[in-house]
Amino acid sequence: MKKALLTFILVLMLLPTLSYAQAIKEGRSDKIELPCLYIKDTLRFNLPKGSKKENVFWYGEGFIQSYTLENGAELRIICGGLHVIPALTGKQYIVTSINGKKRRGKVRKSNLFWREEDFLGIIVLYTNASEEDKNVLDKIIDGISVQVEKK
User: Fold this and answer.
1) What does UniProt give as the signal peptide span (predicted)?
2) For the chain, how many helices (H) and strands (E)?
3) Are the C-beta atoms of 79 and 71 separated by less than 8 Å?
4) Would you tell me which of 13, 38, 46, 83 could form a disulfide with 29, CB atoms 3.0–4.6 Å apart?
5) Could you report the per-residue pLDDT of 8-66, keeping only the tens digit for each?
6) Which of 110, 143, 144 has the alpha carbon at shortest distance from 127?
7) How far apart are CA 143 and CA 139, in angstroms?
């Protein structure tokens, strides 16, 4: 029991220093592998080349990982418990459709789009997406949806 506890503490101490998401260059896109302990699996998806991985924000029950595309659109993955649902709130987010736990809309006073989807412990969303980025990000979220639904 002591050995297991020490191992667990060591892993917790090392996690923030490890690169939590690994990007593998593949032609025109970067393959992302993002371990999500909350669902006990790794999320796999491709981001367009030139996307930038932002710092991980850790909180008590999980983490938030963000990626910024070249045009300024942001993909955010919230993996863990005790987070606010919906994650995107405020006057700037105009809701255009709600289908179950999937919300879509436009950013006020712009031609930009957003989407948020709750997968019971994982929220995947994007904001500030142009029409072109919206199509790319929708495919990413739909792919993550298939992975999570298999669980």
Assistant:
1) 1-21
2) 2, 11
3) no
4) 46
5) 444 444 344 344 444 444 456 677 777 776 666 788 888 888 889 888 898 888 888 99
6) 110
7) 6
Q: Sort residue 82 into left (φ over 0), alpha (ψ -120 to 50) or beta.
A: left
Neighbours of 70 (CB within 10 A): 11
The answer to whether residues 80 and 67 touch, using CB atoms and an 8 Å cutoff, is no
**Strand 41-48, strand 22-26: pairing:** unpaired
Phi, psi of 25 (to 5 degrees): -70, 130
Q: List the one residue out of 75, 63, 72, 64 whose CA is nearest residue 30.
A: 75
Sign of the torsion angle spanned by Cα atoms 57, 58, 61, 67: positive
Among 50, 38, 49, 60, residue whose Cα is nearest residue 124: 38
Q: What is the DSSP letter of 56?
A: P
Residues 132/138/144/147 CA torsion (nearest 10 deg):
-120
- Encoding tokens for residue 27? 């032609």
H runs (alpha helix) in the chain: 2-14, 131-149
